[in-house]
Specification:
Order of helices and strands: HHHHHHHHHHHHHHHHHHH
Low-confidence stretches: 1-29, 376-388
Radius of gyration: 23 Å
Largest sheet: none
CATH topology of the domain at 25-151: Serine Threonine Protein Phosphatase 5, Tetratricopeptide repeat
Oligomer: single chain
CATH architecture of the domain at 25-151: Alpha Horseshoe
CATH class of the domain at 25-151: Mainly Alpha
Strand content: under 5%
Number of helices: 19
Number of strands: 0
Length: 407
Amino acid sequence: MLIKRSSLVKKVVLALSCFVILWNSISFGQNKFTFSAFKNEKNHLRKAKMALELSAEYVRYNIDSLKILAEELKESSNKNAFTRAISCRILGIYEVRKGDFSNGIVLLKAAKNYSLSMQDLELLTSDMNELGNAYFLKGDYKTAEFYYKTSLDIGEDSPNETDAFLALVNLARIHILQKKYSEAKQELEKYIFLATKNEKWEAVANAYAVFADLALAQDNYELAKLYCEKSFSASNKTIKSYFYLNALTNKALVYFLSNEKKLALELFQKILRDRKTENIPYKIFDAYFNLAGYFVESDKNLSEKYSDSCLQLAKKQGLLGLELEAIEFKIDELKLMEFTDEKAKLELKIRELENKNKKERDKLRGELISGNIIKKKEINKNSLMLFAFFSALLFFMVFQIRKKTGK
């Protein structure tokens, strides 16, 4: 998560919460299959389901394997629509993580269209969440928020109980960026409660990391430190080895906020080396940003160097939201005012992107209503309003009767 970009001294970057969104997968369960079993499977339907399970693991720690998985599945994709949809989904997730948003979003929408046509609420919940992830990384937070909310709406009726809160932590991250702190707090509390209830410790650790980001956004460093410690504690309950770097980042931040700067620096430098080996752009950005924030008070030149790396990477990968954060860091923390015009142009570009995607949001909402996917929820809302009205009316009538009778 990214450390808060503040003008105060403590402004390192937590490299967990900003992209916690990318750790939400279709399943919180343990993977039951191996790649070799998947490769040797002859039944197309079973093979697609195995690919779905494997992709939930690979998206966390082995992004390049997603492409291999999708290509292997694609060989049998002409056999049925389900297999083709899963292949599109997996390849779409891969393309988005690697920065090819145009192709990735097209593939994810193809998968979403299949889920919608089949009214598969479990797959559709996850597809919406993944599209939210894509638009988040692209920098269109308004469209990302729409997809996360839609994922939650659909997830309430999904047979998988974890779908009801799958996108909550992602939505909270959006609300932190929008400075809707009370909403983010409520979403994170609900997410942690449900994830703890289901003993999903990786999810709990992620949520506490976002909570730390929320505390940093409000300049509450002691609370941020506490949440980092809680995140680290929860991460120790998971057996997932790929969660190591995320836990290590939390540990580095605890050191930093405890003024143990040397230990923090050693960890941040190690994390950068390991993130480069992983070769996932947004995670490398986080690691650079950690170090830019670390050196902002002690070595402006070194801080500028790391922020340059952030900016170049974000531009190359088309990560508009992160590009804006890198520019804001240069202006607010390094006082490089020559970036002011560049910031204004980028903000305009993001607004234009959000407006352009409004038609897409409206069209999808119409499809969901016509397919009776979210109509039920809207009726429920109306029912609740009617219930509240008649309850208030009944209370008023009882009150008037008691007033007249003196009881």
